[in-house]
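User: Hey, my collaborator sent me this sequence without any context and asked if I could get a structure. I don't really work with proteins. Can you help?
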Amino acid sequence: MKLPAAVVTGRRRMEFAHVSIPVRQSRPAAAAQQSLAGTPSGNNVLALAPRPVPAMKNFLPQASAVGARLGPPAVVVALALVGWELLCRRSGSALPPPSKVLSDTWELIVDPFFDRGGIDKGLFWHLSASLQRVAFGYALASVVGVALGTLVGQSVWAMRGLDPIFQVLRTVPPLAWLPLSLAAFRNGQPSAIFVIFITAVWPIIINTAVGIRNIPNDYRNVAAILRLNQAEFFLKIMLPAAAPYIFTGLRVGIGLSWLAIVAAEMLIGGVGIGFFIWDAWNSSHISEIILALVYVGLVGFLLDRLVAGMATLVTRGTAAN
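Assistant: No problem. I've predicted the 3D structure and written it out in C-alpha cell form, which is a compact way to encode the shape of the chain:
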C-alpha cells in the first residue's frame, strides 16, 4: 500500500526527530569547550567556574577614600606641631614646646581617673562634671526651643510679639547672665545650667521657626484633607518637614553650650574642665592648660558629630552635615 506524500513526510520527520545530528565545531572551539566544562567535548553542558574577586580590589578604593579624608588634616597637624616645636624651643619663649607639654602632662594623660579628694581629680572627672551640666541645660533648651520655635513659626501674632524680644535677648553674652543667675539661684550648679540653657535656646528657636514657616502649603492641604488634629499635624507633618532646620539649630546650640560651660566654670569654681583651666592658670601650669584645651576641642568635636549623626538618622540624610 502506498502512503500519501504528506504521511511519508511526517514519518520522516518523526524518524529524524530521534536522530542527533552532530554540529561541526572548529578545533579551537571544541578544545575551549572541553577545557571549560572539564568533561568530554561531547557533553553539551558548560560549567563555568566563578570568577574570584580579589580582596585588594575592594580594599584599595576604601583605603584611598580614608586617606583622602584623613591625610590633609594629619599633614596640617604635623606641620603645625613641627612649627610650634621650632618656635618655642628657643630660650625665653613664653609657651612650652609640644615635647615639654607631653612630658609635663604625661601623668594626666595616662591616668585620667585618679581622685585624691576635693578638686584634685583626673581630667575624666572634670570633663564628666562639665558634660553633666551641659546635658541638663542643653536638654532643657532643646525642649523649650522647639516648642517656642513651633509657636513663633505657626502663629503670626506670636511671631510679631515674641520675635523682637528673642532678637534682643540672644545678643546678650552668656557670661553676662551669670551674675544674675547666681543672684537668683544662690548656687553655682543651677546657675551654670541656666547659662547653658539661655545660650543654647536662641538658635534652636530661630531655626525651628524658620523650618515651620517653610513647610510647603501642599503638606498643609493634605493634612486638611485627611482631617488631622493638631497633635497629628505636629507629629506627622510639622516635625518631619522642619527636622533639617531643627537639627541645624541643635548643632549650633550644642557648640554654644560647650563654650558657655567652660567660661562659666571659670567663675563658679568646683569640679569642671573650666575650673581646671583656671586653676592651672593660677598655678602657672601652662602645659596643663594646653592639654585641657586639646581635650575641650576633641569633646566639642565629638558632641557636634553626635548631633550630626542623629540628624542624618532622623532626617534620612536631608540635614546638612
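In plain terms: The first helix runs from residue 5 to 17. You can pass these C-alpha cells on to your collaborator as they are.
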